[in-house]
Amino acid sequence: MTFSPQLEARFDKLLKSYPPGRQRSAMIPMLMYAQDELGSVTDELVDEVARRVGVTPLQVNEVLSYYSMLHRKPLGKYHVQVCTNISCLLCDGDKLWEHACKKLGIGHKEVTADGQISLEEVECMGACSWAPAIQVNYDFEHFVTPEKLDQILDGLRKKA
Fold first, then answer.
1. Model confidence pLDDT, tens digit, residues 7-22
2. What is the rounded distance in angstroms from the CA atom of residue 26 to the CA atom of residue 33?
3. Alpha carbons 156 and 133: distance in angstroms, whole number
4. Helices 27-38 and 57-66 meet at what angle, rounded to 10?
5. Other CB atoms closer than 10 Å to residue 19's CB: what's the count?
6. 8 A C-beta contact, residue 101 and residue 107
């Protein structure tokens, strides 16, 4: 499998940062970095990561099925995650989720027709003190209101 030179360098640095026999610890960051470059985790990527860290593809798939931040299907250019766990829920996170679904016309783990925005309802983001919270790609937004969500989503559409 071919990756960009930057990703290859990142993989090399990761694998060298673990002592011999512990390279399997690089599995999750390798999957995340590759997912960012490829758009999703493919069977070919699973095989490649397994080979590089010295485990079976089944072991990589076990990790893949456990972590919700790893995706088998391509995401939108902008991946919007809305927290609906208890702290956000108490601050109308559920209503924020419904608003996002209605505005975008998509549901959980779906992508807009133009491929620009994907949406996911998630458990706790660790931003309970700033509820309700959303995350766009790797950027957090706190104290999100429906109006602020509209501004964020409209801004993403303009960037596209």
1. 999 999 999 999 989 9
2. 11
3. 17
4. 80
5. 8
6. yes
Q: Which two tokens stand for residue 131?
A: 């509820």
pLDDT digits (tens, 9 = 90+) for 63-105: 999 988 899 999 999 999 999 999 999 999 999 999 999 999 9
Q: Give whole-number Cα distances, 116 to 32, 39, 44, 57, 103, in Å.
A: 19, 12, 24, 31, 14
Distance spanning both ends of the chain, measured CA to CA: 29
Residue 142 in 3-state DSSP? Answer: coil
> What pTM was computed for the model?
0.83
Report, in angstroms and rounded to the nearest whole number, the Rg of the chain calculated over CA atoms.
Answer: 18
What structural domains does the chain harbor? 5-66 (1.10.10.1590), 78-159 (3.40.30.10)
